[in-house]
Amino acid sequence: MSIRRMHAAATALLLALGAAAGGMPAPPSAAAAPAASAELVDPIMVPPPAEFQPNGSSWSPSEGTRILVTDESLAGEGARLAEELVALGLLDHAPEVAFIDPGEAETLAADLREGHEDLILTTADAPGIRVATADVTSVVVAGADAAEVFRVTRPLLQQLQAAGMLPGGSYRFELPAGQIRSLHIDIARKHYSLESLEALIRQLSWFGFTELELHFSENEGFAIESTSHPDIVSPDAHSQEEIRGLVELANSLHIRVVPSLDMPGHLDHALDAYPELRLRDASGGEVFGALDVTRPEGVEFAHELIAEYAELFAQPGFEEPVPWNLGADEFVDFGDAGQVAALAEAARAEFGPDATAYDALTGFVNDTAAVIRDEGFAPRVWSDGMLRAEQATLDEEVEIAYWTQRPPGAVPATEFAERGYRLLNVNDEYLYFVLGERVEYYYPTGDAILADWHEGVYPSVDGAPELVEDSAGGMLAVWSDIPDAMGDAEVVDAVRGPIAAMAVKFADPDSAMTFADLETALAGIGHAPEVEAPAAPDPLPTVSADGGGAEAPDADERTPSAPTMPLLVLGGAALLIVLGLGAVMLRRRSRR
């Protein structure tokens, strides 16, 4: 079963530029032929549409453009879009944002012909192709909710940024529902300015990413202020208030921020303040970076940090729990009997005579995963030390960030999948961006990602990539091993190509786009507009099909009925763009 077929039931983004005389959308075969005198232009969008049926016309915003919303929940997106059109230099003044009753759609067509080149945002699905004509007056953007409407407007703005107009026709995009599109960044070993992190978040939103994983604990540093243990942080650590603002920005762009608080390894900097909590080897020496999880005090320290940062990273605006990466990678040298002596002894005491140090690690992960769930998050760990215990069974609800086959004995990705674990693809052969190119991790440009990777391609075993059909998504990992190898702004610029390439392959695993074509598109679409999330108009004004204005009705009166919205077809000579976002969720096989 191919990844493309696996995503056959995925969310579909439909963008149809056209108009009908009224009634139901016409099938694709009924679409009008392009105007003979109009030049056909391919859209410039990243990711590109899965399907584009041109009609030879085009649309551009004008000073008469209004942004009309059919649901009050979209008023904030309307206000944002209005400011973005100005920020990109497409308009001199922000358009009016107002409410329009969806039931007046056909009557509205007459008003549109009077010169209103409007953008209409609606929560309805629009899974049809509109019959095209050559006279364009409006754009309709449809999505299941505000987040989906926001993501549909990204390719619209990209095209307008690149060419100043939107080619007429019918567009279809495919982005699997629930797919994780993520970037992990190590801020523990390198200080990134707030400005650079904000630019990174906007860049992620520009390409439809859904997640930023913020890695703030490492052997060389601890990057966020701690009120419970203030002596563990780095001198240049970000304040909690700064991180709170960063989370708010990301959330406003419909991106969740995942805390990555690595434990029980990678804690050397924090343990400098608490040497008594360090794991000891058989001769009493310190094990570098390792927390002693055989002692209650060590476990309590870890869980205290989780409790503190759980409040900072709380993001109640998302329906599903936000993931929390507790790490569990590169804990100790499991092949060194001296290093693991205390762990092995504790494991045998808890799990029986056949238990090993891996059982001690797995037990800690299970206990900590329960704490993370109690705090309202979904636990995630790195793959390298997992499924290697003899007696302890890894919590089946822990998500696996699968990254490598480098450590001897690493369990293949397919074995995790066969045992029912949810896998996030962080394939280090394609998705590791290591500053200074340390340990032969060369900077990815996006070329290899386009050529050979998709979210189902996991690290190779015996020279052949592991293929996992039911992958949760993918994550580019930026590691700051040699922090001075690049400036923070340079890093943000350097990862743009890989991020864009991943966006293309997330949308179409079989895409044949070349890296040269991608670079051309990136040069055209530019960067995401720097617009803070503006407040929705309050009260939200109302426009009617006859051009009149009034106060908006009550919220419950603004909720469109299900039969009305699929019929949102404007009559006469008006030409619609319909960006439809189907809400069909990708059926994923049930987990153990």
What does this structure look like?
By secondary structure, the protein is α/β, with parallel strands linked by helices. It folds into 2 domains: 3-176 and 530-581, Chitobiase/beta-hexosaminidase domain 2-like (Chitobiase, domain 2), CATH 3.30.379.10; 180-525, Glycosidases (TIM Barrel), CATH 3.20.20. The chain is 27% helix and 21% strand. The strands form 5 sheets. It has a 10-stranded mixed β-sheet with strand order 2-7-1-25-6-5-3-4-23-24. Strands 8-9-12-15-16-17-18-22 form an 8-stranded parallel barrel, surrounded by 4 helices. Strand 23 (541-543) and strand 24 (549-551) form a beta hairpin. Helix 2 (75-87) packs parallel to helix 4, helix 4 (146-163) packs across helix 15 and helix 5 runs parallel beside helix 6 (240-252). The longest helix has 18 residues, at 146-163. The radius of gyration is 26 Å and the shape is elongated. It starts with a helix and ends in an 11-residue tail after the last strand. Mean pLDDT is 85; it is low at 1-38, 109-114, 126-134 and 558-592.
| Biggest sheet details | 10 strands, mixed
Q: How many structural domains does the protein architecture include?
A: 2
**What Rg do the Cα atoms give?**
26 Å
Number of helices: 15
- The CATH architecture category of the largest domain equals Alpha-Beta Barrel
CATH topology of the largest domain: TIM Barrel
* Structure summary, number of beta strands: 25
Distance between the termini: 21 Å
Strand content: 15-25%
> How would you classify the helix and strand content by structural class?
alpha/beta
Widest sheet: strand ordering: 2-7-1-25-6-5-3-4-23-24
What is the 3D shape?
A: elongated
Mean pLDDT: 85
